[in-house]
Amino acid sequence: MKIGIVCYPTYGGSGVVATELGKALAEKEHQVHFITYSPPVRLDFLSKNLFYHEVSVSDYPLFEYPPYELVLSSKLVDVVKYEKLDLLHVHYAIPHASAAYMAKQILASQGIHIPFITTLHGTDITLVGKDPSFEPVITFAINQSDAVTSVSESLKEDTYTNFPKVDKQIKVIPNFICLNDYSFENVKCEKKMYAPNGERLLIHISNFRKVKRVEDVLRVFDKVRKTMPAKLILVGDGPEKGNIEKLCRQLDTCGDIRSLGNIVNPEHILSIADLFLLTSETESFGLAALEAMASKVPVISTNSGGLPEINVNKFSGFMSAVGDVEEMAKNAIHILKDDSTLNTFKSNAYEQAKKFDIDKILPMYEELYREVRSKSKAL
């Protein structure tokens, strides 16, 4: 099949999943065309079946904000026509699904019928979607999609709750990892670079938005380091970064914390960690936690959103209520207290990650593609 993928090309979970999905599809001999404003950060285009089409937005003085949705729609029309795509798979309801719908109508007027699938990832439903001004557009875009998927049962229920007029059946296809990428044979990082005296090494990866509650990460770490020698690695960047730096000075933990910024391939740094902290107010899925588990790193997380669907309490890690720093720290200390306990949780985390390997998830998407394409041809 010839598949067009529309996504945000950034470090966020939706962009990562869309990129890895496209790479896996290309390896199965599908032809995959990425259509976005810049090359996805995890894409190398070394495969003969991967293509990139840039959506270029001109800055006209008339527009206060560049009309990205309109330009994207036009680009979709162009790519579908000249690359003869079989379907479009858009990640995020707005503006991608609404742009796909517009492109579909333009193409239909020219006798070209292109179905599109919308995958909901979270922010479009749980944050942006709560703005009443977006409700009619998001509801319409979802209902007009030829198929809709969500990355977790939690997000599926949130969609029906936040958008009561959505009448489209939503199929849950969870996020995934490529276990083959998490090999420990050629680890480039050395733990002693970050924990020179054998300290326990904790890690957090996120986009540092308020919803991630990174302050709680620092407070949990502060309690852990007062019990045992420990270091913390922060990976990512975002609007809360300045507040985090202030808090680490207040707690006097800056000497034990390394901030690495954004990293394209986090599996390298995850491979040397002992524990992953994810203290978010909500997560539609929690891809960063799954990537940690694939690296044999147990997870201390909140119990909100889709996290209970991947992190098994007392097996791959522990879950606590949002903001319960005391319990999170207690559970972290329990895992890290001795090598035997830590190794058990590491092994369990990896076993849990196996359930979300790309080899198990990719066939779900391929089956959906065939189903949607077949229905489209029948019209």
- What's the total number of strands? 13
Mean pLDDT: 91
Total of helices: 13
CATH class of the largest domain: Alpha Beta
Radius of gyration equals 22 Å
SSE order, one letter for each helix or strand: EHEEHEHEHHEHEEHEHEHEHEEHHH
Strand order of the biggest β-sheet: 3-2-1-4-5-6-7
Which structural class best describes the helix and strand composition? alpha/beta
Subunit organisation of the chains: single chain
- Our count of domains comes out at 2
The CATH superfamily of the largest domain is Glycogen Phosphorylase B
Give the % helix.
40-55%
Shape: elongated
Strand residue percentage:
15-25%
Major sheet summary line: 7 strands, parallel
Summarize the structure.
The protein is of the alpha/beta class. It has 13 helices and 13 strands.
List keywords for this structure.
alpha/beta, 379 residues, seven-stranded parallel sheet, 16% strand, 13 helices, Rossmann fold, 13 strands, single chain
Layout of helices and strands, plus pairs?
Blueprint: E1 2-6, H1 13-27, E2 31-36, E3 50-54, H2 68-83, E4 87-91, H3 93-108, E5 116-120, H4 123-126, H5 135-144, E6 147-150, H6 153-162, E7 170-172, E8 200-205, H7 214-225, E9 230-235, H8 241-251, E10 257-261, H9 267-270, E11 275-278, H10 287-294, E12 299-302, E13 317-320, H11 325-336, H12 339-354, H13 358-378
Parallel strand pairs: 1-2, 1-4, 2-3, 4-5, 5-6, 6-7, 8-9, 8-11, 9-10, 11-12, 12-13
Helix pairs in contact: 2-3, 3-5, 7-8, 7-11, 10-12
